[in-house]
Amino acid sequence: MSQSTIHRVEFKTNVVHINDVKQRDLARAKHLVAGHQPHGPNAKKHQQPKQGGDEIPVMNNGVTYLASCGFGEPATNCSLLIDTGSSNTWVKKEKYKVTSTSKDTRKPFSITYGLGSCSGSEYTDRLTLSQDLVIENQSIGVADKSDQMPNMDGILGVGPVALTKNTMAPDASNPNGIATVMDNLKGQDKIKIECIGIGYTPTTKLNAATGNLSFGGPDSTQCDGKLNYVPITSTYPASEYWGIDQSINYGNTEIMAKCAGISDTGTTLILLPQNVYELYQQKTGAKVDQTTGLLTVTQAQYEKMESLYFCVGGEKYEITPNAQIWPRKEDSTLNIPSGEIALVVASIGDIKAGDGLCFINGFSFLQRVYSVYDTTNARIGYAPTKYTHATTN
């Protein structure tokens, strides 16, 4: 098999019925801004999470993206949440079947997320991501306990190895953490570089195949235009995550000057500095819904909205008015009042440009823009897709 081969894995979406999207996103953002438990390519030098506060909630808050992965031989397929912000791969015990390739290491594992936790025993086993992408002797947590982990069988952690430290029993052969899925893909010559391309699509219905991962590089078929790469920002703490430098226009008006922030698959909304958020609210005429804390507009206001343009590395990525709203067929999950339309833009807080992490491009942005996370070359790639101008919402 050629190392340059790009492996594509389909996945599906699963809408989680919650009404506190904003609160959960802000709790996550608070820890990211503080520099706790970084998870970008420059975070490998951090062997311990920074002290203070709870762990970061790594899970997507409104929609989960699930990949069907096989354990053992013959493989038992399980639906795993895809997470670039954590690195352990684990599965619930009731979903896991011991086969000839399974090995119980008799070592405990335990992971506490900001939202949920799990614990059990570590196994090594064959992990099948696709027909031609199979990993041997992958470390897998088999969880006999899992808390607040509904609608999934486990997690596929594709972040850096440093995040696995202290989640398993000490191992002299792996003092800096357990080999991740990405580590083993590269170590077993399945991919040439540690790079993941993620193609989300706007949600249309539950449990539909509406996205894909490409291991080893980007999937050019997902791009509807130029794929542009930028290096990880040098501004701390955004530099410790998947950080970029970016400005934003609303229509032809710049509402956010160039500053540092991050691209984050674990955040649902688009989070902007308070002053930028207020300017956006003024431009759209939106008001704050007292139940959810989200901005809402009327149909008449929506029809007058303009596109947001995210300016990154000399390229502009358009987020249309339709992409700025929560899918209206899901308004009932947030208890949005009849006649109002919820927006996916929220405030990250009273952040100044010099604070170093001013915005988060969550998956509301990433559903309309193809994204590539290249650990080997410490860079991020964006490209428009055929869904950039979709009217799905």
Automatic annotation (TrEMBL):
User: Residues in domain Peptidase A1?
Assistant: 65-383
Record InterPro entries: Aspartic_peptidase_A1 (IPR001461), Aspartic_peptidase_AS (IPR001969), Pepsin-like_dom (IPR034164), PEPTIDASE_A1 (IPR033121), Peptidase_aspartic_dom_sf (IPR021109)
Alphabetized, the UniProt keywords read:
Aspartyl protease, Hydrolase, Protease
Tell me which Pfam families the record gives: Asp
Is the keyword Hydrolase in the record? yes
Q: Where is this region: Disordered?
A: 34-54
SUPFAM superfamilies given in the database record:
Acid proteases
GO MF term (any one): aspartic-type endopeptidase activity
Which residues participate directly in catalysis?
Answer: 83, 264
Q: Which GO terms describe its biological process?
A: proteolysis
- For whether the record's keyword set contains Isomerase, the answer is no
The record's similarity note reads:
Belongs to the peptidase A1 family.
Q: Output this protein's name.
A: Acid protease
Q: What is the lineage of its organism?
A: Eukaryota, Fungi, Dikarya, Basidiomycota, Agaricomycotina
